[in-house]
Design brief:
Elements (H helix, E strand, L loop, with lengths): L2 H12 L4 H6 L4 H17 L26
Helix pairs in contact: 1-3
Length: 71
Amino acid sequence: MSHDQSDQDRISSRAHLLPEEAAAGSDDPQAQADAILAESDLREADRDAAPDTVLEHRTSAETVNPVEPPD
């Protein structure tokens, strides 16, 4: 099976709408599947490609001191 055929198989498989997608509707499930899989491939290749995937590593010394409530 060629790489292109494998991609077509993935797209065809993903083009079956999930219940949430079917409820919202889709003008072109094939194009939607292609876009979803392309983004997924980018994220797999570069774990920092998604906008909200940056994980900050802080120590307890770098946290904010809590503000004491007034008496």
